[in-house]
């Protein structure tokens, strides 16, 4: 994306930047006037693009019942397009915020004491991953 000579920040500019800055793979969901873009698998950072502003969050989910996850992102920043001076500055700010979101999310991952693999917190039962809890501890989810 070329930002030279363009000094207007719009939702479209932010959408283009989000695809470039978020960890791959990137998943996009459109709901009404809001576009949510999640980077990483498992999710690490989230950019929500609204008509007048952008929100950057640490990816998060919580369990609803025993088999359904619900988005529960932790917002780091909310910026109105009018407060961003130009696309180059917007890209620098978004890049730093995405990096921080990814670092925070990665710090939440834990190593399973049985299989020794690292898992996101939503797939852990204390110090054991859900898979090992089922296989070795007889817990049914």
Task: Describe the protein's architecture and organization.
The protein has 141 residues and is α+β, with helices and mostly antiparallel strands. The protein has two domains: 11-108; 109-141, no CATH class. The protein has three helices and eleven strands, in the order H-E-E-E-E-E-E-E-H-E-E-E-E-H. The chain has helices at residues 11-21, 87-108, 130-137, and strands at residues 26-31, 34-39, 45-49, 53-58, 61-64, 68-71, 74-80, 110-111, 118-119, 124-125, 128-129. It has a five-stranded antiparallel β-sheet. Strand 10 (124-125) and strand 11 (128-129) form a beta hairpin. It is elongated, with a radius of gyration of 18 Å. The model is unreliable at 1-6 (pLDDT under 50).
What descriptors fit this protein?
alpha+beta, 5-stranded antiparallel beta sheet, two-stranded antiparallel sheet, 29% helix, 33% strand, elongated, disordered N terminus
**pLDDT < 50 stretches:** 1-6
Question: Termini separation (Å)?
Answer: 45 Å
- Envelope shape: elongated
Order of helices and strands: HEEEEEEEHEEEEH
User: Taking all residues together, what is the mean pLDDT?
Assistant: 92
Briefly note the structural class of the backbone.
Answer: alpha+beta
Q: Could you tell me the number of beta strands?
A: 11
Main sheet characteristics: 5 strands, antiparallel
Taken as a percent bin, the fraction of beta residues is 25-35%
- The helix content is 25-40%
